[in-house]
Amino acid sequence: MAASSAPPPLLPRLLALALTLAVVAVVVSAAAAARIRASVTPISRSLYHSSDSLLSDIKALVARHPDKLSMDTKIASNKGYSTELFIVTFNHVKESTANSSKIHVLLSFGQHGRELITSEVALHLLYILTEKHKIAGVDLSSFEKILENLVIKVVPMENLNGRKRVEEGELCDRRNGRGVDLNRNWSVDWGKKEKDYDPYEENPGTAPFSEPEAQIMRELSKSFKPHMWVNVHSGMEALFMPYDHKNTTPNGASAHLMRSVLENLNHRHFQDSCLVGSGGGAVGYLAHGTTTDYMYDIVKVPMPFTFEIYGDETATTSDCFKMFNPVDKTTFDRVINKWCMAFLILFEEGLRNLRDAQVVSEGGMDNFVPMGGDIVERSSAGKSSPDKRKLEGLDLGMQELRTYFRLFMLSTVLLMFMFCSRISKNRNRDAGNIFDT
């Protein structure tokens, strides 16, 4: 009788089972990945410019209108990472852009790479300022007189490197070319992390202003000295004022001034449909190290705002392009027209409110002193006071000095802890050697 066959050894059976499970896992993962990819809306190339084509169109527009537009390129680098920013200046009556008789407006678009719609608004706004005399049939001739009182600097794509990452397929990435959120890299309350902190979304960098993009924008804000600042984002529809890092708005006349401008804009143009208030109070989460808070606390911009211009609440978190950008032409055109018109109304409201608050006069800006709290008018005697200039300069630096001091103290505590731990270990080792002997 033939001998009965022995069962196969246990180890080969386990290896075969593991191999089978691995193959099944790969198949399931591939199917899941295919479903995820299929659910993500791609960039609508028929609606949106590439970063290169958008900048090319802007350069051509500047070349056609040298009487109103000029363009500067700023390059900066830090620890092997570099970037360039393009800054377009609109000056309706081409004099010196430093002319103190005009209100200075600074607008930044595309700070987050995935928010392509914001840069499209920047391009169309420049067209409207120079070539288009109507928006959706509305005659814009009434705004001509307002524009004569403004110098507007537009940064159409603050995060060029991050934008290119998005164009290469990273549709959910909001960070710059080395993974830092530019709207967390500024010094006011920098580095603080909430309980729901996500480094993919909110990486603040290694230190305040570690990123070249933020360095360029800081220098631009301090040299241009804007009276109005708008940081343009997408994800919802809202008109925000400081603060982002706490659930409150500033005190004093400046807060009343900002809120008045935003509420008038919301009522006149949006039929009270936008959220209005502080970013930290209205969004539902606090943001630390943001540009707008720095513009208010350090640069002393009287009217610093953050605008959220579009959001699709029906989009899933994996469908980032659809969540932050219109995907059909009708919605795209509506958003472009609505927000270009909103900026024109903002210019009108800002100019009127600054004058009503005696921050500016009909004749010029010579009496203007930017203040973080109450708006005051500067006397002619005060202009030449060296003591006042020293106090203003001291005030500008105190916030950043406090931030760096906190970092220094934290580093000192950590070093002392490590030093004490090393001494403790050495003592324990020496004690062990005594007992061994």
Automatic annotation (TrEMBL):
<comment type="similarity">
    <text>Belongs to the peptidase M14 family.</text>
</comment>
<keyword id="KW-0732">Signal</keyword>
<feature type="transmembrane region" description="Helical">
    <location>
        <begin position="403"/>
        <end position="420"/>
    </location>
</feature>
<keyword id="KW-0812">Transmembrane</keyword>
<keyword id="KW-1133">Transmembrane helix</keyword>
<protein>
    <recommendedName>
        <fullName>Peptidase M14 domain-containing protein</fullName>
    </recommendedName>
</protein>
<keyword id="KW-0472">Membrane</keyword>
<dbReference type="GO" id="GO:0006508">
    <property type="term" value="P:proteolysis"/>
</dbReference>
<dbReference type="GO" id="GO:0004181">
    <property type="term" value="F:metallocarboxypeptidase activity"/>
</dbReference>
<feature type="signal peptide">
    <location>
        <begin position="1"/>
        <end position="33"/>
    </location>
</feature>
<dbReference type="Pfam" id="PF00246">
    <property type="entry name" value="Peptidase_M14"/>
</dbReference>
<dbReference type="InterPro" id="IPR034269">
    <property type="entry name" value="At5g42320_M14_CPD"/>
</dbReference>
<dbReference type="InterPro" id="IPR000834">
    <property type="entry name" value="Peptidase_M14"/>
</dbReference>
<feature type="active site" description="Proton donor/acceptor">
    <location>
        <position position="308"/>
    </location>
</feature>
<feature type="domain" description="Peptidase M14">
    <location>
        <begin position="47"/>
        <end position="331"/>
    </location>
</feature>
<dbReference type="GO" id="GO:0005615">
    <property type="term" value="C:extracellular space"/>
</dbReference>
<dbReference type="GO" id="GO:0008270">
    <property type="term" value="F:zinc ion binding"/>
</dbReference>
